[in-house]
Amino acid sequence: MNKPLPVTMGHSACPHDCPSTCALDVELLDGRTIGRVRGAAANDYTAGVICAKVARYAERIHHKDRLLKPLQRVGAKGEGGWREIGWDDALDLVAEEFLKAEARHGSEAVWPYQYAGTMGLVQRDGIHRLRHAKRYSGQFDTICTNMAWTGWFVGAGAMRGADPREMAKSDCVIIWGTNAVATQVNVMTHAAKARKERGAKIVVIDIYDNATMKQADLALKLRPGTDGALACALMHIAFRDGTADRGYLARYTDDPAGLEAHLATRTPQWAAAITGLDVEAIEAFAALIGRTQRSYFRLGYGFTRQRNGAVAMHAVMSVPAVYGHWQHEGGGAFHSNSDIFGLDKSEIMGTAYRDPSIRTLDQSRIGAVLTGDAEALCDGPPVAAMLIQNTNPANVCPEQRPVRRGLARDDLFTCVHEQFMTDTAGLADLVLPATMFLEHDDIYRGGGQNHIVLGPKLVEPPETVRTNHFVFEELARRLGVADRPGFGLTERDLIDNMVKKAGHTEGYEGLKRDRWIDCQPPFEEAHFLNGFAWPDGKFRFKPDWTGGYAPNRPPDSLGPQGPVAGLPVFPDHAELIEAADASHPYRLATSPARQFLNSTFAETTGSRSREGAPELMIHPEDAAREGLVAGDIVTIGNERGEVRLSLTVTETVKPGVLVHEGIWANTDFLDGEGINTLTGADPVAPFGGAAFHDNCVWLRGGA
């Protein structure tokens, strides 16, 4: 009879692309095997709660289809022919191909391409050290945060806000533009605590009746891309009804009189016509926050993934400034704490030898880059070699057809370092197997909360699997730059140096003992009661959209992006979205699925079985007009391509709006083309970004 394995408990942090960065307790069954993963109860933001997909992480780390050996392509790209190759030979091949590309076209012909498949600062960002040391093309990270961060920053002047734990002390929690039940479960933990202990109301604003909307006391379902109009109506009502805090406005904001005059025509009736909301619902929401000083606005990314997304974020975060909610514990607003952590990544990233004259390529425009668009290439050489880590561009990037066409080029060498045979890995010349987060050392910071969290190595990886850090280091040695600063150090060395530089004198060992560091600023700083982070200390209702610093401003060589002339002077609804027309009558949003995180977890049985299959939600009125019923196979399309999938008829969505949840593998769709076939890569004003939820399509029935 087999004895059960002894269980010990290890401590880590969730590495995935989620603002929560949950602190974790992990069952360790032996040196290579894990059991259940739980949220750390001792961490007062995680509060013992994590999402179901991470709780089932044993299913992923021990998956039968996990990549375990380096593979070299045999036959044509994408045909699926592979042969095993040793690690030394594989890395020799990468170095050889990089040097060939450099000899033919110069160093900029090599493009290391990465993103947030891990949020660990060492394993994610160390690729830049190799990039800068070798003068390879830079990457402008536009795919996720640009619209949201730009919109917040132009108002507040810093990326911080009210302590996210204060949601539990609020009397009204407004969850705007994020399906927190699916994507940020800890938001619901603290909002539910406020409801239980204080009788707080939960307001949810989104474009369809998702799981978070179903938990709301007041649910406002508006048309995609119209959040700014709702925000303006709320502020109009505040000035109209005397619930605007004029004393706060005079002390803390730049031009309240100009804003009030601007909003005179932004009535609830005006907003109702734009948003599709009832005037009564807008008035009720305004009355609630007008009488509730402790109103906490938790602002997500989803509503900013429109072509007017930066404008929408600025308009929405202006609301608590007009009402004066910032003055009260449990009030104000929060989007990201990315400014508070004080971690200097320069050694990890090798920024000391970054050359600003080297071109920077827009990651969201990878399709245009790889298919030779001169503007996307900054009028420079073609990209001839790539190392891709922590992302799956053939699946997650906009304008999927040119992305895949570019990756399939015979004259492009692509090495993909991955955990599974993703859509991108399937188009590579060389695939290297990567460790998972419990198999290496790293450090994390939670933009959606307030902690630096250590993720130490807890189990041994399979013998033939290697870390990102190993790949950077080995390529640096083969490419002749291993003597540069930052190379030759272990992950723990880099963590120790960075933590000590931030003032935590015990470094790695101290963090390992304590598990996390709480970096939340004092109340007055978090609530901007000492002034907003501009020289005059004023919140800016009149932002400088293009003239100042931004958290992710494009390099000067790229300049402002998108139709900047359409950006408004004051908070407003900007008509910059992809508007429906007679040829494309439906607005399509590609919303997150509960069981997936971008394209991660789409390979695990538990997540796949709970999600079912790719489906398209349509309102019954639209289905009846099109002569369609549930289960029909439909095609949706625009000038970027077409996608076939099954139909779900539901009042969850508004008439004229289609919703597809989750980034399924391309191969899960009937024609092998994923939902981002339909997503545009045109840059969003003012500093770029991908408008994933801002697409117009036609719809046709018939298989």
UniProtKB/TrEMBL annotation:
One of its GO terms (molecular function) is metal ion binding. Belongs to the prokaryotic molybdopterin-containing oxidoreductase family. InterPro entries: Asp_de-COase-like_dom_sf (IPR009010), MoPterin_dinucl-bd_dom (IPR006657), Mopterin_OxRdtase (IPR006656), Mopterin_OxRdtase_4Fe-4S_dom (IPR006963), Prok_Mopterin_Oxidored (IPR050612), YoaE_C (IPR037920). SMART domains: Molybdop_Fe4S4. Keywords: Iron, Iron-sulfur, Metal-binding. PANTHER family: OXIDOREDUCTASE YYAE-RELATED, TRIMETHYLAMINE-N-OXIDE REDUCTASE. Residues 7-65 form the 4Fe-4S Mo/W bis-MGD-type domain. It comes from Aurantimonas marianensis. This is Molybdopterin oxidoreductase family protein. Pfam families: Molybdop_Fe4S4 (PF04879), Molybdopterin (PF00384), Molydop_binding (PF01568). Signal peptide: none annotated.
